[in-house]
C-alpha cells in the first residue's frame, strides 16, 4: 500500500512528465529552486521579532504554509531524482545528531 | 497508527525538549536554519554542470543525502511549530500549481 | 574626499534613520534580508542553462541589475553596522584565496 | 585613476583567468555561489538573538567579516560578468526605494 509520501512523489513525477519539464529538473536546478523557495519562506520572518514569529495571525500563517509546501515539493523531487528516501535519510541523520549532541552535554546550549 | 512522518515529528519534539532547545526554535530561527541548510545542499552542485549533477558518484550522493535530511528535519520542525500538516499543504499547493500551469499550455516551457 | 562607497553608506544611514528603521536593522535581520535578496537574484537564473545565463537580453539584464543592487545595499548596511570596511575585507580575503588556491596547482580545477 | 572598486574587479578577473576558472563562472553559477556565501554569513546569526547580533565579540566579528568579503567578491564578479556597475545600480535602486517608501508614510513601519 502506497503511503502519502509515495503518492505525492508519483504525482510530482506525473506533473513534470506531462509538461515535459524533466529537461529542466536537473538536481542542480532543483537544488537552486529549493534554495530560492526556502528564502521566500524566510522572507516572511525577516523583519519580525522571534516573539512575533511565534504568534502569526491566520492569514500570515496560511501564506507561510504555502511557502513551506513549495520547499517540500522541491525537496521531494530532488530526493526522488537522486534515489534518496526522505524518511530513511532523516532517520539516519537523527542518529548522527543524537551522537553529536549528547543530551546531558548540550542542555540549553 | 502513527505514520512515519508523525513518528519523526514526535522524535524531533523529544530531541529538542530533552536538550531544552525549544527556546531557540522560534519559527524565525527555524526558517533561517532551513535556508542555511538549503544553501549547504546547493553548495554541492554550484560548480557542477547540469549533466554532472544528474550522475553523482555514490560518495557525493551520500553527502547530498545528508544535506537533504538536514533540510527535511528543519522543515518538519517549522511546520510542526506552526501547526501545518506537510502532506495537506503539499496537496493544496499541487492543486494550485495544476491550475496555474495547465498542461496543454505549459508543455516544455 | 569621500569615495562613492562612503557616500552610499552615509545615504543608507540617513535613509534608515529618517524612517526610524534602525530598530529593525539588527545584524541578524540584515543578514536574513541579504540572504533573501541573494535568492531573488538566483531565481532569475534557476531554470536557465549556463549558456543562456551568459547571454541575457537587455530586459532580463536590467532586472538582474536591480536584484544585484538590493544585495549590495544590504551588504553595505550590514558591513557598516558591524564596523567592517568592505574594501579592506575583500583585500584580506583575496590574499587568503591566493594562498589557498595556488595558481599552478588549481589550474582548471 | 582607477578606484578601489575598479582595482578589485581587475584583480578578480586576473585571479580567475590565471587559474582558467572563467569556464565555471557563468552568471548562473556565480549567482549560486553568491547565495551560498550569503547563507554562510547568515549561519553565524541564526541562533543568536537580535540583541546578541548587535554586540558580537571580536572573534565572531572577524569571522563574519570574512563571510561578508566572500559575498562581496562574488557580487563583484557577477556584476562584472554582466557589465553592471555596482555603484550606478545601487544609486538607481536607492532612488526607487525613496519613492516606494516615502519617509513620512513609512516612519517606524
In brief, what are we looking at here?
4 copies of one chain form a homotetramer. Chain A has helices at 4-18, 27-43, 50-53, 58-81, 86-100.
- Overall average pLDDT of chain A: 95
Write out the CATH superfamily name of chain A: MazG-like
The count of DSSP E runs of length 2 or more, i.e. the number of strands of chain A, is: 0
**Termini separation of chain A:** 42 Å
Q: Which CATH top level class of chain A fits?
A: Mainly Alpha
Structural class of chain A: mainly alpha
Approximately what portion of the residues of chain A adopt beta-strand conformation? under 5%
Taking the sheet with the most strands of chain A, its summary is:
none
Named CATH architecture of chain A:
Orthogonal Bundle
Percent helix of chain A, as a range, is 55-70%
Radius of gyration of chain A: 17 Å
Report the uncertain regions of chain A.
Answer: none
- Give the total of domains of chain A: 1
CATH fold-level topology of chain A: Helix Hairpins
Quaternary structure of the protein: homotetramer
